[in-house]
Amino acid sequence: MNDDIICAIATSRLEAAISIIRISGKGCIDFVQSFFTGNLNKKSQTISYGYIVDGEEKVDEVLISIYRGKHTFTGEEMVEINCHGGVFITNKVLSLCLKKGARMAEHGEFSKRAFLNGRIDLSQAEAISDLITANNDQAAKLALKGIQGNITNFIKDLKEDLIKIITQIEVNIDYPEYEDIEELTAEKLLPGSVSLRKKMDDILDRSKNMHLIKDGISTVIVGKPNVGKSSLLNALLEEDKAIVTDIAGTTRDVVEGSIRLNDIVLNMIDTAGIRETEDKIEHMGVKKSLSLI
Q1: What is the distance, to the nearest Å, from the Cα of residue 183 to the centroid of all Cα atoms in its chain?
Q2: pLDDT at residue 10 in the model
Q3: I need a labelling partner for 196 at 20 to 30 A (CA). Which of 140, 235, 262, 289 fits?
Q4: What is the pLDDT of residue 208?
């Protein structure tokens, strides 16, 4: 599978000054050279000017960046075509790549190849996705630390500490007769084990905080009917998201919206007013409100 040449539009599919089509795979530089008028026989990380052509027809005037060797993002040859950013022309260049024999990359396949080729580990691959979807400054900083290998190094240190403890235990069990081996007692073993456990608990707590920063905090607006829950939601969102009337029990289903409070996203949820009711539909709304609480 990794011998395939894959391609995809790496920028948003919107009208812009420039669009980038990313191509990766063994022989992709020679592949692009076959329909490019400039010269790509240059060193890695260089840019060449020319035209993308389909036979005798000039398709677009472009700049092409080439990346050779194992130190590219995917760990294999890569090419990036910088074409004009119109939706039509970008799709036309992409279609030409597919016509010439490349295939469309699957979602996340460039990162997948980087992982399979040993350029990044799984935590770094996940951090790339987190950085792309980050919706606040704090989430972006955390994702960037993940890409830089902070999580990998932390886990590596934990693993080394754990192996050290296990090795000491196994040596004492397997070779109790050896006099030159330090005898392992609970007093010697427990401090290191407790410290390791604390580090693991800390990383789990930090992980929970990261999820809150990344995904936002679910915030339920709860109260009796007609006390202003929907009005509060609309005021916070600065739009008429929920229907507001002076009739008690107007809100019968969940109404949602998100607001930003500094670097934290609050996922606001307006609910049905909680009361005893004979109305079957309103009762279902009250039941849903209680479940959200």
Answers
A1: 48
A2: 92
A3: 140
A4: 80
Distance between CA atoms of residues 130 and 222, nearest Å:
31
Each residue of 53-70: pLDDT tens digit? 999 999 999 999 999 988
Nearest to 24 by CA among 66, 83, 84: 66
Residue 191: per-residue pLDDT: 83
Closest C-alpha to 171, from 182, 160, 162: 182
The answer to whether residues 129 and 108 touch, using CB atoms and an 8 Å cutoff, is: yes
CA distances from 289 to 149, 193, 237, 255, 285 (A): 42, 44, 20, 11, 6
Q: Please state, in angstroms and rounded to a whole number, the distance separating the CA atoms of residues 48 and 51.
A: 10
How many whole angstroms separate alpha carbon 196 and alpha carbon 263? 31
Across the beta sheet with 78-85, what order do the strands follow?
Answer: 46-54, 57-67, 78-85, 16-24, 6-9, 103-104
How many alpha carbons lie under 13 Å from residue 232 in its C-beta half-sphere? Answer: 14
- Mean pLDDT over residues 93-115, rounded? 93
Return the amino acid letter for 209.
N
